[in-house]
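Lecture notes, structural biology module. Today: joint structure prediction for complexes of two components.
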Amino acid sequence: MLYTTPTMALLEHAIDVSALRQSVYASNIANAAVEGYSRLDVTFDAALTQANLQTASSPASSNALPLETAAVVATGDIVKLDEEMAAMAKNALRYQVLLNAFERSLGSVRLAINEGRS
Amino acid sequence: MDLFGVFDISSAGMSVEQSRLAVAASNLANARTSTGVDGTPFQPLKAVVQTTSYASVEAGLAAESLPRPVVQSVVPTEAAPRLVYDPGHPDADEKGFVSMPAVDSLSTMMELISVSRGYEANLRAFDVTRHLLQSTIDMGKSR
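The predicted structure, tokenised, for the full assembly:
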């Protein structure tokens, strides 16, 4: 897109992963009563850490991670409602933070469009 | 990523908890039903909850493919009726014992608490999703 900065692309991706997390936690909570259900989780942080290491060695590549790096996996654990609620609250906060950051980066584009007059 | 699909998952969870509540209420209400439809004492019921397959989750990220629970069937438990000595009861056998349903009121009350917490958690998940969507929709409104 014309006005998509790398930061915005990254934020967009992170918001996507956060939304995926929300749906995974909601699914865990909904399936808490199912016998033999294995708790699902999103593996993204590990991929992110690895990508950070790679970026540190070659700072020029600031490409966003492909969305496929966020995989939903079955952990094999049982669902604990309290842990699930805590994880969901944390993720909701993260989602809000990312949205705010995205809004701010939109604001800087807007500032440029308005020729510096805010 | 589609957050709208999450509403369906939480709804499925709430619907399952409602079925569990109905089963527990029926068990409690029939705790002294010594003569059921076929003449035998009432058998306590159990809701069998299953989840849709999540083998395909690894392949895609769509909320539609995440597992959601469903009450597959309500089956009678195998618990043997407990014998209560009550010679005056019309259902008493020749020794004066009446077969009463094996409803364990303690574990049924525990089930009720578990249903209540499960329903609340699903409702909360629903609310959080709604809140996140609302903030997404409101993005950019402040300027």
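Point to remember: Residues 81 and 126 of chain B are 41 Å apart (CA to CA).
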